[in-house]
Amino acid sequence: MDLPSLAVVLQAALSPNPDERKAAEQSLNQFQYTPQHLVRLLQIIVDNNCDMAVRQVASIHFKNFIAKNWSPHEPDEQHKISQGDKDLVRDHILVFVPQVPPLLRVQLGECLKTIIHADYPEQWPRLLEWLKLNLQDQQVYGALFVLRILSRKYEFKSDEERVPVYHIVEETFPHLLNIFNKLVQIPNPSLEVADLIKLICKIFWSSIYLEIPKQLFDQNVFNAWMLLFLNVLERPVPLEGQPADPEVRKTWGWWKVKKWTVHILNRLYTRFGDLKLQNPENRAFAQMFQKSYAGKILECHLNLLNVIRVGGYLPDRVTNLILQYLSNSISKNNMYNLLQPRLNVLLFEIVFPLMCFNDNDQKLWEEDPHEYVRKGYDIIEDLYSPRTASMDFVSELVRKRGKENLQKFIQFIVEIFKRYDESPVEYKPYRQKDGALLAIGALCDKLKQTEPYKSELERMLVQHVFPEFSSPVGHLRAKAAWVAGQYAHINFSDQNNFRKALHSVVSGMRDPELPVRVDSVFALRSFVEACRDLNEIRPILPQLLDEFFKLMNEVENEDLVFTLETIVDKFGEEMAPYALGLCQNLAAAFWRCMNTAEADDEADDPGALAAVGCLRAISTILESVSRLPHLFVQVEPTLLPIMRRMLTTDGQEVFEEVLEIVSYMTFFSPTISMEMWSLWPLMMEALADWAIDFFPNILVPLDNYISRGTAHFLSCKEPDYQQSLWNMISSIMSDKNMEDSDIESAPKLIQVVFQNCRGQVDQWVEPYLRITVERLRRSEKSYLKCLLMQVVADALYYNASLTLSILQNLGVATDIFGLWLQMLQQVKKSGKRANFKREHDKKVCCLGLTSLLALPVDQLSGDALERVFKATLDLLVAYKDQVAEAAKEEEAEDDDEMDGFQTDDEDEDDGSDKEMGVDAEDGDEADSLRLQKLAAQAKSFRPADEDDDDSEDDYSDDEELQSPIDDVDPFIFFVDAVKAMQASDPSRFQNLMQTLDFHYQALANGVAQHAEQRRAEIEKEKLEKASAATAS
């Protein structure tokens, strides 16, 4: 398509006529892979004579095409863009980036990001040369813009992936320093200068985010940079041109420069300037930073904050970052000494006023209470909020320097309380009282464990907090509820005070002001948790739930759902009369939240979080009424539409929560309805398509279908559940790309089939054994090998004669039994068994091996019989010991629990304040740390491998899944099998006994005695159950 034709098609893509638009889009899709298409699009984007709307459409199409096709996503995928076109695009995009208007530059920047991530340095080595050349040119904006994108590629890279950064820094930083130097010397600089400095700051930030490049270890070089940053930090922001609107003002170029400068200095200080954090080679740098710069930065920061004190403007983000720096300085002696002379002014004239309710809060409270609530409960807002940073500063101060500051600060708060109480209504310092209450709530951990304050808390609540429940000022009523919640767990000497606070919080749920209602619900959670006598809440439970759902109709907030879960947890089966209504309300709230989340399309949208919370609360309700199966029949019609829709790709964000509900519904309902069976194909489709990571979660409902709906599973042919299960399991187990850990649930499911369908699925024994043996050949992880071997054990228990003949026909019988016996004998360095670690594993193996004892001599030779017999005895002894050990541990745990009734304030930990200085722009690092932590946790839950000697826990059984073999006692099963052999083939039995040495004869006698003991115990349990049933 030539250039004029392409322009016409792009113009048509803007047409108000949907048919014309569709035709244009089809035409673009048709020609997008033709040679020169990308180049022509770029020509239109940069053509100043072309209509701006057409250029914009071209830029979006260009960006999307590059994102999708610049480099293949799969290893064997064809290249969609010719090398010639790529070269032309790379060469020209650099030239035009600075020339096009900002609207188009954003799109080209995204394209550059894709190209740089794919091509630099291997396919685009000339890029760095171009940057060097253009950084020495008069028009440096384009070079800085591109260098920013390049530096971002390596911002979060570490170790080898970070190597290109050193070369980039070496080649470009001398030029950057030169440009920066010239820019700060310009008198009356324009906004364009601010944009250039901001880009330099961002490049520097990305380059030092994880590690300081070695070039900056040169003290002269580093000092040159620091002088410039300190210059920018100290220099007042130009007054001329500042926007009047505070929302626009904070994004104004010069304030952005100030923010990035503070950001960089904070990063250098917290990550590289702290002696405790450093490895030895960086220690010298940290010492130099502390000695030469940390104090100077502190001084500049205090001067900046002073602007607030005298009524000047400082953006919230800058204030927040400065306070983070100050918080990090409290624990360092030399820094604290610098801070001390100005500490009183800082604390009482800057930090405390920031904690108080202000004009912006009042405006938002009145004009948009929903937004007020959202901001108050949004963790991202906290990262930017001066108020949160102020609370953190005070908390850190009293935690690390409490001796000299706690009493002084509390005295200040008491003075405010006093002044408030003594002032007439029209002059009461309501906003200061709000700040004082916030401070008291924020310091609750410290005050709960520090005398003399600890003893005075109840009196303080009664005197200064409770009266505000009826304050004429809404924000004080809200704050009273919040503070009361913070202290709900203290030991009240007068239970009437606890009662009064609880009832005031419940009344707050009916307050005319929305933020008061929300804070009251949040506080209620603490009171429900702390409540020792549920009769305090029981009479008002119906009205409480009523208010609750009214509020849920108004606000999508995860914390509301947490409170509901706490109530349900606390009242358990007493929630039965409300279960249906609760589920209906939560289901309605869920659909509302999902609709909001879809409309907003934001992953961390509060609606999406609240939707997850609704499903979790439904699970909590189902768990609390699990002994009342009739209720499950009642709630099923309400929950079915959620399960149906959310088991498809629409439910990827809530899949785990939905599967939990499906698990409860299939396990606790009296029977599994046909409607519930209709969910089976959805789970199979999800597993085949995208949900392999959720296989362990899907295993639970599938087990329930097979074990609780066995007759339907076996008889139904439309759909054919047996065939569908085989298709899924065989596909997953034969997939060579699947890791061992991905498929662990597959052999577990085969075991479920064999255990639940004994004698009814003979036709499936051979196919399942075949894929099990095939997978066993290439399995590496010991845990999967154990699971696959347990499939063989379960098949033997299902039908030993059939299983053995199948293994012989497959030509693997000798190998399989050899491997099995070898795995049973394998021990770790510690002497513990390397395989079949859980009770359940040992039991399955016992039942499988014992089943072989009944086979005649032509199927199991005398020699093989002896080996099986001995292995079974060894395993039974190990099983007996493990069961005894687990019972002992359980008993010890019960004792610990009885000892553990401590109140909150007796058992407080001093280090309870949250970490300082987590930053929104540091979010990726915080995320990666969180992911590392989660990965470590996940690893610890996975069964240990052969070489992993110490991480094993033999007693962490996941045996909450029920199974038909639960009622089979392996000792009785073994003894009965031996007796049957003795009766049916006495000479075979005689020969076996004669081959056993004294050790194994003793073991056999011990097992026989234990079996009889177990028989008596089981009989006794049955009688007790029967008499209990009769009595009830």
TrEMBL record:
Gene3D superfamilies named in the record: Leucine-rich Repeat Variant
Localization: Cytoplasm; Nucleus
Disordered, as annotated region: 886-963, 1013-1032
Domain Importin N-terminal: from-to ranges: 24-99
Basic and acidic residues biased stretches: 1013-1025
Compositionally skewed regions (Acidic residues) per UniProt: 890-926, 945-963
PROSITE patterns according to UniProt: IMPORTIN_B_NT
Keyword set, alphabetical order: Cytoplasm, Nucleus, Protein transport, Transport
Transmembrane region(s): none
Superkingdom of origin: Eukaryota
Family in the record: Belongs to the importin beta family.
Protein name per Swiss-Prot or TrEMBL: Importin beta-like SAD2
Taxonomic classification: Eukaryota, Viridiplantae, Streptophyta, Embryophyta, Tracheophyta
The encoding gene: LOC107422253
